[in-house]
Design a protein that fits this description.
It is a single chain. The protein is mainly alpha-helical. Helix content is 33%, strand content 7%. It is built from 5 helices and 2 strands, in the order αβααβαα. Strands 1-2 form a two-stranded antiparallel ribbon. Helix 1 packs antiparallel against helix 5. It is flat, with a radius of gyration of 18 Å. 6% of the residues are buried. The mean pLDDT is 90.
Length: 138
């Protein structure tokens, strides 16, 4: 197996449902981001307008980046029938049931970074973002 295959297997073992490895590149529509900001489409999310150039390419954050690892985890939970049918309750999104996904995923990403170093046989420099970093992620 290749290192990529080993890393994907480790990601599954740690609890990720899917993983992809990508070259560090600007997202397909990154060039429209400045105009999107100019039109005020970021609303009250002012952090999006801070240093927008930094968000346009992964190398603006990590000049030596070689790969981007993307992970997915299904957080769907079947809610108990008595909760779904109780007229006094509102609907709560599945991701909000249970532990904060930022904490859960960050913990798994830390474990995976250690495992990648072991598999690669060398230190790696990794950054973990769970929809918290300056990268344009969609």
């Amino acid at each position: 197996m290749s290192l990529s295959d080993d890393v994907k297997a480790a990601a599954r073992a740690i609890g990720f449902d899917t993983m992809k490895i990508a070259a560090p590149a600007s997202p397909p529509r990154a060039s429209s981001f400045p105009a999107w900001l100019q039109q005020g489409k970021h609303g009250s999310m002012m952090w999006l307008a801070r240093d927008p150039e930094r968000r346009l390419h992964p190398q603006n954050i990590m000049p030596d980046v070689r790969s981007i690892l993307l992970f997915g985890r299904n957080y769907h939970q079947t809610l108990p029938h008595h909760i779904l049918t109780d007229p006094s309750r509102g609907r709560i999104a599945s991701y909000a049931w249970g532990r904060d996904y930022h904490k859960t995923l960050t913990s798994r990403l830390k474990k995976l970074a250690v495992e990648i170093e072991r598999l690669a046989g060398r230190d790696i420099h990794a950054r973990r973002y769970v929809d918290t970093g300056p990268l344009l992620e969609k």
